[in-house]
Amino acid sequence: MNLSTAIIEQLAEHLENAELKREAVAKITDAHPDMDWEDAYAIQDAIRRRKIARGVRIAGLKMGLTSFAKMKQMGVSDPIHGFLTDYGSCLDGAAIDVGGLIHPKVEAEIAFVLKHPLKGPGCHIGDVLAATDFILPAVEVIDSRYENFRFDLKSVIADNTSSARYVTGGQMRSPVGIDLKCLGVVLEKNGEVVATAAGAAVLGHPAQSVAMLANMLGAKGQEIPAGTFIMTGGMTEAIAVEAGDHISVRYQHLGSVSMRFVGTNNH
């Protein structure tokens, strides 16, 4: 670690205030070019502690940058992880207020809920599927706190991987008998198809994303507890949304999830 505890706490406050006041800020590596990966996760952990101290409940975990194309684009070999909050949770059909967001985008994902804990290292797809209670469709509304959605990887880890809102719906299904690699998804914006994908877009298999999360946390001596809700990362590219937009995502075997965006656009 290259940053002092005081600077880590200061940056956590800075980024969380950007979220709470919905004010975009410059990426933090501009001012702290020597920041390393451990520093980035330490800032994220400090944001998490700040939220818990205010009574926010941590609702789950999420993986980011899980598509090979996105990793190649960002020049990284590993995905990143963050956490989900109770206030981020939205029900199927929800009206999501853009007034609380800076520049929201949506991406379609497959979420897992565990019935057994998972601990790395050495966790693999088979372990994940055996530990899974059910899968369900979810749409993540990401909202980077950085100006013009421009950031580097360390900055985005510190910013809790752009986590903002997420919508769950459709049907809960056991993963048994479903070919998650080939599970197809169609994302529509205002009735027009804007993105299509299959489960294989996420690290070749969505369960691989959960295995990687277990291994990344295992390296820090942590496990994923039973009952944890995990978003595995975008199958589709991130699609920008604003007030007045309606998003509907259809999932093979799992039904559909929809939401609309309301409020005043921040333009």
From TrEMBL:
Record keywords: Aromatic hydrocarbons catabolism, Lyase
GTP-binding listed as a keyword: no
Cross-referenced Pfam families: FAA_hydrolase
Leader sequence residues: none
UniProt GO molecular function: 2-hydroxyhexa-2,4-dienoate hydratase activity; 2-oxopent-4-enoate hydratase activity
Domain Fumarylacetoacetase-like C-terminal: 104-261
Keyword Lyase: yes
GO CC term, one of those recorded: cytoplasm
The enzyme's E.C. designation: 4.2.1.132
Origin: domain of life: Bacteria
Main EC class the enzyme belongs to: lyase
InterPro entries (UniProt xref): 4-oxalocrotonate_decarboxylase (IPR017630), Fumarylacetoacetase-like_C (IPR011234), Fumarylacetoacetase_C_sf (IPR036663), Hydratase-Decarb/MhpD_sf (IPR050772)
PANTHER family listed in its UniProt record: 2-KETO-4-PENTENOATE HYDRATASE, ACID HYDRATASE
Listed NCBIfam families: catechol_dmpH
Family in the record: Belongs to the hydratase/decarboxylase family.
Annotated protein name in UniProt: 2-hydroxyhexa-2,4-dienoate hydratase
